[in-house]
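User: quick one, sequence for these tokens?
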């Protein structure tokens, strides 16, 4: 297959197979369709939010093989055979609960992406340091309403609760 053939294939509608939240899924669309569109419109997983749709705000962040990616700028062809995790995979006793307990949310857009980035960080680096948490949130996530202190408090609480459980 030539490079041109490979590139045109990404524009062609075909069935892309990957895992979402541990389950095998298949989506039949053009490969350049965004992962965000596939999650929200084809798989009806609407917990992943749309913010800027340009890869800048972090609202649409999900984990791919455990690492945070902005699903609005991730083409579906690139997750073929990979494992995607969305906020729907989190149980009531995980980060959403501590964010609720600390009232660490003002809007319905940025927080789900922030929770997924922190979920990935705590899975990779338990317990993450304050500088690691700030660095990973600073890299991509925009919160314009001033919930930053409550967000950090919620992450601290989640780390503390994990330490005693
Ligand atoms: S909606 Fe994807 S980064 Fe803003
Ligand atoms: S909580 Fe969403 S912008 Fe601050």
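Assistant:
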């Amino acid at each position: 297959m030539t490079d041109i053939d490979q590139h045109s294939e990404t524009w062609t509608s075909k069935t892309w197979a990957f895992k979402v939240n541990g389950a095998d899924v298949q989506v039949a669309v053009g490969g350049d369709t965004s992962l965000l569109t596939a999650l929200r419109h084809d798989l009806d997983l609407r917990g992943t939010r749309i913010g800027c749709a340009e890869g800048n705000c972090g609202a649409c962040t999900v984990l791919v093989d455990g690492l945070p990616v902005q699903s609005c700028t991730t083409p579906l062809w690139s997750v073929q055979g990979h494992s995607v995790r969305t906020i729907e995979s989190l149980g009531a006793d995980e980060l959403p609960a501590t964010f609720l307990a600390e009232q660490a949310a003002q809007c319905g857009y940025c927080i789900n992406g922030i929770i997924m980035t922190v979920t990935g960080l705590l899975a990779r680096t338990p317990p993450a340091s304050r500088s690691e948490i700030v660095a990973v949130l600073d890299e991509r996530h925009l919160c314009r309403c001033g919930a930053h202190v409550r967000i950090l408090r919620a992450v601290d609480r989640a780390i503390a609760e994990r330490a005693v459980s």
